[in-house]
Specification:
By secondary structure, the chain is α+β, with helices and mostly antiparallel strands. About 55% of the residues lie in helices and about 10% in strands. Strands 1-2-3-4 form a four-stranded antiparallel β-sheet.
């Protein structure tokens, strides 16, 4: 029996991206009130057999999220201005590099520097790394809470909630319509917020084996080990999704589900409509009808189906 594919997505500026088996779809609410929906194949590396190799698939997933997510985000921003030009590859990767640098500095370097204040008072490497992990978690929670104070980000979080509602409805066999989707919850076990929490926890155990090398070597370890931490965290999230109904998984899932209260909001019907438009589009592309034409190659994001891949 074929494995069930887990659909998922990402909230955008007045829009939602949904990732399917071999396609991604983006639906955006335009300033005139209409919805623009485009769909394209994803690069082969994100849909081939390598994506099923344990641990390696976590690294591929992270690269996919950064690459496809950024392109979809910029597409949604362009839709709001009415300037639907091609996405410059250099601009995209420059933006991504800056964003990654900021994330590493805030969530890995800063907790390391603060935890080093305790080195002279604590002999245990495990305890010091636990303190670093608690500081990292505190920074993450403070960051998510503070950006949620912005009106624009609150709208993005509402689209995040709409994305979860749409996926929850689909996974339970409900019709992909606003009325039938509205009752479902805004939290989901495979949410990126839960993944971030898993990264925080896994990092504690990984860095506990590193000890306390010099400052620059410690920073290097936190960069070099990121793919490993991401891979291990992804496997935990995947395991949670596959066994979400088991009693022993629920206590492990609860913290991540609770943290999503900071990154999701209850969407209105217009936001649900956008999320459902994206999900319906990508599901239809995954299950084409006999005799249906191939996907429209002109409805692409950025520079074409393999841009950024």
């Amino acid at each position: 029996m074929a494995k069930t594919f887990h659909y998922g997505g990402q909230a955008l500026i007045e829009g939602v991206m949904m990732r399917g088996k071999k396609h991604m779809a983006v639906a955006v609410r335009l300033p005139d009130g209409g919805i623009k929906t485009v769909c394209q194949p994803v690069p082969q590396i994100y849909s081939g057999r390598l994506r099923e190799v344990p641990f390696l698939r976590g690294v591929i997933m992270l690269a996919e999220t950064l690459s496809l997510g950024l392109r979809a985000l910029m597409f949604s921003a362009e839709a709001q201005t009415g300037e639907m030009g091609e996405l410059n590859r250099g601009t995209m990767w420059g933006t991504l590099t800056l964003a990654l640098g900021f994330a590493v500095a805030l969530f890995f370097v800063a907790p390391l520097l603060l935890s080093r204040l305790f080195y002279a008072h604590i002999a245990s490497d495990v305890l010091v790394n636990l303190i670093e992990g608690v500081i990292r978690l505190g920074i993450l929670i403070a960051y998510l809470w503070s950006i949620g104070l912005s009106r624009e980000i609150r709208r993005v979080f509402a689209y995040h909630g709409a994305e979860h509602k749409a996926v929850n409805a689909y996974e339970r066999g409900a019709p992909l319509e606003v009325e039938s989707t509205r009752p479902y919850g805004t939290a989901h076990v495979r949410c990126g917020t839960s993944f971030l929490l898993a990264v925080v926890i896994v990092a504690i155990f990984v860095f506990a084996f590193v000890g306390r090398p010099g400052l620059w070597l410690s920073i290097a370890y936190r960069i070099v080990f990121l793919p490993l931490i991401a891979a291990m965290s992804y496997e935990f999230i995947r395991l949670s999704a596959d066994h979400a109904e088991r009693w022993f998984m629920r206590p492990l899932m609860t913290p991540g589900m609770a943290l999503q209260s900071l990154t999701t909001r209850e969407p209105d019907d217009s936001q649900l409509e956008v999320a459902l438009s994206a999900l319906r589009e990508v599901v239809s592309k995954d299950t084409p009808q006999p005799g249906a034409p191939p996907p429209d190659a002109t409805s692409q994001l950025g520079q074409g189906p393999h841009a950024g891949g």
